[in-house]
Amino acid sequence: MTSITLSGLRKSFGATEVLKGVDLQIGAGEFTVILGPSGCGKSTLLRLVAGLENATGGRIRIGERDVSGLEPRDRGCAMVFQNYALYPHMSVAENIAYALRVDRAPRAERRRRAEEIARLVQLDGLLDRKPAELSGGQRQRVAMARAIIRAPRVFLFDEPLSNLDAELRVQMRHEVRRIHEEVGATSIFVTHDQVEAMTLADRLVVMRGGEIQQVGAPAEVYERPQTLYVAKFIGSPSMGTIRGTYCAGARALRLPDGQALCVGDRLPGFADGTDVVAAIRPEALRFAADGQGLRARLRFSEELGSARLHHFEVAGEAVPMVAADRRPLEQGAVAALDAPIADLHFFDPETGTRHPA
User: In what order do the strands lie in the sheet containing 16-26?
Assistant: First the structure.
């Protein structure tokens, strides 16, 4: 198994800087997921590792080798793309074994290896079919098998599940993770889908605007976001945020509408009058039992089946709440919400960094 080290990695297209000095260490055998919105640079980063693009600056090490100047074929990587890119006139077996054919391996050897890999990705009995005779999930398995047969040190996945329907995506997530465990290669998986990211990753890398916002285990990123961007990007629905001014004497945030949000001793040493953004997960909010919580006005509700998602407005800001008790509320109704102090997260409204760091 092989580690990957990115040092000061930069990429510009003309005057547009897409990657702005990315530093990242990926451990040997690790399944790392790079998560971010379209245009954040995640696919460009993957293409730089593969050698499909040339970096503007910085270095890439795969294992002990600096591969920054090497051709793609010399880097020991195999890539699975969003589109399957299968040869339509070739059978499944021929598609899987194409790399061996290029290497002039004997026909019998190519067939034997194709059968071995087909069993691994559960394509038994389909080796003589053409791609047009396969489902979307089966085609994606062929693409993965084609990558596996090269015995790469590194697997690179560029949003490989985005063309599949919802049910098939769930199945293929399990397959991708199972195959990673069996093959054991170091894997980088790029996606904009946070469910994919949270369920697949050993480590999660959240990107924005060509920079890394946070790196950590999925649970760590979810439970302790380091920036306001990560707090609102991770989670569905995302965190609700409320801006206020810290009142040291009352140990509370004074909201623009005059309400007070109690923060206890969560902001030690903060100066009176400091502006703060408080954030809370929708599942952490509760209806106040005594009716003395934050006054919130209901915008609308959504039925989730097991719970109900209420979209409230507190001091002019949107604050979603997942309510397990499913009590009916009319649009425009006012409710009292309890925001437990232990569940609050605090951020600097100017820099977006976490308080305390």
Answer: 16-26, 4-13, 57-62, 65-66
* Residue (of 268, 295, 286) closest to 340 by Cα position: 286
Count of H-run helices and E-run strands, the chain? 9, 21
Which domains does the chain possess?
A: 4-232 (3.40.50.300), 238-355 (2.40.50.140)
Q: 85-111 b/e with 16+ CB inside 10 Å = b?
A: ebeeebbbbbbbbbbbeeeeeeeeebb
Q: What is the DSSP pairing of strand 57-62 with strand 65-66?
A: antiparallel
Which residue, 164, 2, 142, is CA-closest to 80?
A: 142
Residue that has been written with the tokens 């990926």 in this structure: 26
Of 281, 280, 247, 277, the closest CA to residue 264 belongs to 247
pLDDT tens-digit profile, the chain (357 residues)? 789 999 999 999 999 999 999 999 999 999 999 999 999 999 999 999 999 999 999 999 999 999 999 999 899 898 888 887 889 999 999 999 998 888 888 999 989 999 998 988 888 889 999 999 998 888 888 988 888 888 888 999 999 888 788 888 888 888 889 888 888 889 999 999 999 999 999 999 999 999 999 999 999 999 999 999 999 999 988 999 999 999 999 999 999 999 999 999 999 889 999 999 999 999 999 999 887 889 999 999 998 888 899 999 999 999 999 987 777 889 999 999 999 999 999 999 999 999 986
